[in-house]
Amino acid sequence: MLFKVYILFSKIKNRYYVGCTGDDINERIRKHNTNHKGFTGKTGDWILVHEEIFDTKSDALKREKYIKDQKSRKYIEQLITKAKLN
User: Fold this and answer.
1) What is the pTM of this model?
2) 86 pLDDT higher than 80
3) CA 54 to chain centroid
């Protein structure tokens, strides 16, 4: 099983969301776009802008935490841009 760290973007909120999953990424995004109480629950316009794949859940969780610990939109945008160039 592979694990994914992903970054979603909402134009309505003009915000990024960083998450981690072992599930099908398309199904996970669909869940984010449903009406629920969480941070991603109200807009329904979340799109995948970045994805990284890991062999272990532990590695994926460490990466997710690292990205979130940066607390930086600039860092996230640089990460996305760099990945698009490769």
Assistant:
1) 0.94
2) no
3) 14
